[in-house]
Amino acid sequence: MPENELKIIKGCQNGNLEKFRLLYDAYIQKIYRFIYFKTHNKEVAEDLTSVTFIKALEKINKFDPDKGSFANWIYQIARNTIIDHYRASKSHLDIEDAWDLNDDTDIERDVDFKDKIKEVEQYLKRLKPEQRDVVIMRVWQDMPYSEIAKITGKSEANSRMIFSRAVSTLKKDMPISLLLYLFLIMK
Amino acid sequence: MENKTKQILEDLYMIDKKFKDQEDDLIKIINKLIETKPEIKVDEKFINELRRQLLTRARLVYPETSVFWASITNLNKLSYIAGGLAVLILIILPLTFNLISPASISFEYEVTSVEDGAFGVLTSSEENSSEFTYSVGSGSVLADNLTQEAVSEISRAVSSASGVGATSALMPTPLYEPEYRPTYINYDFVYEGEEFSLEESKLPVYKRKIEFSVSGTLARELSKIVNILDFSKLQNVVITELTAVENKDFGYIVRMNLEDNTFNIQKNWQRWPNDYIKPLAPCYGDVCIMEQAQVDPKDLPSESETITIANQFINKYSIDLSAYDEPELSENPEMELLRYIPQYVSVVYPLKIENKLVYDSIGNKTGLTMMIDVKEKKISSLSNGISALFESSNYETEQDTKTIIEIAKKGGQTYFYQHPNPTKTYVIKLGTPELILTEYWKYDSNNQTSEKLFIPAYKFPVTGMPEEIDYYSNSNRNIIVPVIKDLLINKNEDDPPNPYIGFERIDSESYDIGLPAIAE
């Protein structure tokens, strides 16, 4: 974890919560995008991003740097917030994000997202949530494996492996043009 | 092949080398698909609103603490040893800490939103009374009506001020054979960027919030200690400045201005070595011609070393950087133009308000600035330290991007004069702009005061210019155009912009001013 980040977190834990805005500025774009790509809706993404940061602010005292990075911690909050959101609205216990919803589920999506992702959606849904997260982070959010490793709490090599398995899964089912399309829109 | 395409292909090959067999097709598809890549833009309003909510919540979760004293005691790490004033500060600070903890100057970052238009009309009061109106067309009416005589006057003034001693072509009867003649330079700005739009009809303008309470309280406490006069007889006294001197080798002097809540740090000259200033020749009495010894190029620290030195200083004295972006080296025209190794290099921590970087009027990042002594590898000074409390107030924006581009073509905030008969015209290419904040001084002629505002503006990067241009190459690589309507519609000038006059060396034969040649 960057020394400066740890210093800010310690400042927050010592009661100077106004320093939390520095963490907010560092993570808001990443967390919003991560949530958006898992919900496909601007309003929902904004709501869940707000909830994620409010939870992080209120629970900052519980963050233990010895147990993992701050990135790992806040992404986990985001992940749980998404799951809570879908669990609250659907009685489907395995829902991790909008990708896991049934085809006949009426989910409101942004027009742009709907048009661009329609074709690849059926393939992405076949991935395990963990694989999907890594694909989203690597390709859509353009993160290096070192950063993905921090967020997922896995090693860099393990993250690469998850990504390559995800791609292999996609390759089996997807025509080449769709696979490329996926890569490009993810870039 | 574009880098992006290459990277995507490499990613694919790393996963499966069989993709390589289809490379030609892949490139076609990739290039086509790159054009249709969807963009997701996080709504700035949402980001700002959530930041405000979190700050409010932070205060609810944990009651507000007095941060002024934390800031001051951070500076106390400088070991206030010498000087009566320094001792005084050490006495006063604990006293006041106990007595007046609610009074504070925060050097930490905070933005408070106030009602729309709260800072009044943004144009300076003198500008309001001027008849000069900024027009988007071919130039200002006043500027267009400038007579040749007026240009001549300006030319003389510029020649005189520049100290070049040049003889203008418009000036009569040169006494000496001229070596230089003026060249009237126009800059032709051409926009080559992409289409852009401004969604927000209003955007926040920022102003620093100044706290005075501490200076009054310090004055009261001072009156209890200082017996040189009866402070109680003075009314409404405030302490405006504090100076602390660190009396040790490589010590510092810290100056805090409590009126405008700023601070700066300079090296204590008396306690720093001065061996790089040497007499050039033996001194005659008190008269010495001093020479500043050249810094050895090998002493010049690398960029990363320089940044590390700056960061170490920041960490050592716990200077709050909440309002600043990552540090970067300032450009050094001396080094580039004169091939001169300077004694100091400069690092700037750019000011960032609600995630927008602040630029000065000619497009350079501005913020906390540190000078690093190249030879000693130490911080020599820190300037532009401010309390980062801001108020924000929304103002109407100019959403017509054509208008914005037209203003950029005139040079934006710098606003260049267009000479009717230029000697040279340089074409400057401008790229797609980025929304930033720019410093703007609002002058109130009635009170003869100025206050700095931070105005949302477009920064047009200079993407191309002729190689022979020296003006832009080292100082101005961006054109700044404010987006607040007030400042564009009522953009008034007391004086028309001066023509940019350069000087080029000529021989006497080519110097034709319509006068008989001076006989040798």
UniProtKB/TrEMBL annotation, chain A:
- InterPro entries given for it? RNA_pol_sigma-70-like (IPR039425), RNA_pol_sigma-70_dom (IPR014284), RNA_pol_sigma70_r2 (IPR007627), RNA_pol_sigma70_r4_t2 (IPR013249), RNA_pol_sigma_r2 (IPR013325), RNA_pol_sigma_r3/r4-like (IPR013324), WH-like_DNA-bd_sf (IPR036388)
Q: Does the keyword Translocase apply?
A: no
- A Pfam family annotated for this UniProt entry: Sigma70_r4_2
Enumerate the spans annotated as RNA polymerase sigma-70 region domain.
23-90
Listed CDD domains:
Sigma70_r4 (cd06171)
List the GO molecular function terms.
Answer: DNA binding; sigma factor activity
- SUPFAM superfamilies, from UniProt? Sigma2 domain of RNA polymerase sigma factors, Sigma3 and sigma4 domains of RNA polymerase sigma factors
Q: Which residues form the RNA polymerase sigma factor 70 region 4 type domain?
A: 119-169
**What keywords were assigned to this record?**
Sigma factor, Transcription, Transcription regulation
**One biological process term in Gene Ontology:** DNA-templated transcription initiation
Tell me the superkingdom of the source: Bacteria
Task: Spell out the PANTHER family in the cross-references.
Answer: RNA POLYMERASE ECF-TYPE SIGMA FACTO, RNA POLYMERASE SIGMA-70 FACTOR
The family line of this record is: Belongs to the sigma-70 factor family. ECF subfamily.
Q: What is this protein called?
A: RNA polymerase subunit sigma-24
Q: Lineage of the source organism?
A: Bacteria, Candidatus Nomuraibacteriota
Automatic annotation (TrEMBL), chain B:
Annotated keywords = Membrane, Transmembrane, Transmembrane helix
Where, by residue number, does the polypeptide cross the bilayer? 78-97
Record protein name field: Uncharacterized protein
Q: Which organism is it from?
A: Candidatus Nomurabacteria bacterium CG10_big_fil_rev_8_21_14_0_10_35_16
